[in-house]
Fold this sequence. Notes:
By secondary structure, the protein is mainly α.
Amino acid sequence: MVGGSPADVADASVFIEAWSKKVVHCGAVGAGDATKSINNVLNSAHLLLATEGMLALKKYGVQPSTALEAINGGSGMSLQTTRLPDNVLSRKFAYGFALGLMRKDCKIAGGLVASQTPSATLIPRVVDLLGEAEAAFGPDADYTQIAQLLEDRAGVTLG
């Protein structure tokens, strides 16, 4: 996700391709960062939604591993529902991306959304939850620990 003039992006692509499998020119300078921030807030939102759903199902009597087996074969599957078993149900919380960095990106997304869509409610809530998780677990915790914030509130663990 890059931004800049077409000529600048073409010149930089030689270097960017050394560490990135895919390069998408998103528009003017800043557009790549803006797109990355929205990507990461969607990532976090999906994890929060999946966790909230699994908590409700567990309280209803459905084991999260069973629910995820069904969901991951259906239309509700997302990258996050496929990560839940390895990172949340296992209690590892070790995907490898720091909560503080995720919150930073999501705050950028929150600012973008607030400036472009002042009536937005969902993305600001995700940003707030990331802030609460960072306060609880620290900036170096894995971002998947945002699931633990919801578990703590529900009084139930998924693993």
